[in-house]
Specification:
This protein has 166 residues and is of the alpha+beta class. The chain has one domain. Helices cover 17% and strands 34% of the residues. An 8-stranded antiparallel β-sheet has the order 7-6-5-4-3-2-1-8, with no helix packed on it. The longest helix has 24 residues. It is globular. 20% of the residues are buried.
């Protein structure tokens, strides 16, 4: 009888450990992710996202020989799926009537964000490239809600805020 109760406890602990393993194995987003691509200079672009701890994000896309495009979004991570929902920043001069892009959805595996769904008019037919984290220390900022743009000279430094005179 004693042996049976001991094996039941051990079996229960093993089941609990196996069930809780995926929760501990979930990958966490770092602050910055980037990627680039294009088959020719005319369609080459660099794509950068900064994820903040409060669920805000700023995305920037820079096509070859064009001004950068910047969007603000809220992000959420559910297991291996990361979803960004665009919003219009209060301080921006963007039209409140302009339709926002459809959500951008990534699969998050082995530290890489692979796009699976995006707004074609905004991000093109091929969508954004696969995104990988910047090397070294790449911690999330508290918030990027007050950002107007990324700091294009050094994206890992503070963003350009709405009150900046740059």
């Amino acid at each position: 009888m004693r042996f049976h109760s001991c094996t039941s406890v051990v079996a229960s602990l093993l089941v609990l450990a196996v069930v809780s393993l995926p929760a501990h194995a979930a990958e966490k987003l770092k602050g910055f992710y980037s990627g680039s691509g294009g088959i020719s200079a005319e369609v080459h672009r660099v794509f950068i996202i900064e994820f903040a701890a409060d669920g805000t994000a700023i995305l920037q896309q820079k096509w070859h020989d064009k001004d950068p495009q910047t969007w603000h979004a809220r992000w959420k991570q559910e297991n291996k799926k990361v979803t960004l929902i665009y919003y219009t920043a209060k301080e921006s001069k963007e039209s409140k009537d302009a339709p926002l892009p459809e959500p951008l959805i990534f699969d998050f595996k082995h530290g890489t964000l692979t796009p699976v769904s995006w707004d074609t008019p905004t991000l093109g037919y091929t969508g954004p490239p696969k995104l990988t984290p910047f090397g070294g220390t790449n911690a999330q900022a508290g918030s990027v809600a007050g950002c107007r743009d990324l700091n294009i000279l050094d994206p890992t430094r503070e963003c350009v805020t709405w009150g900046s005179n740059r």
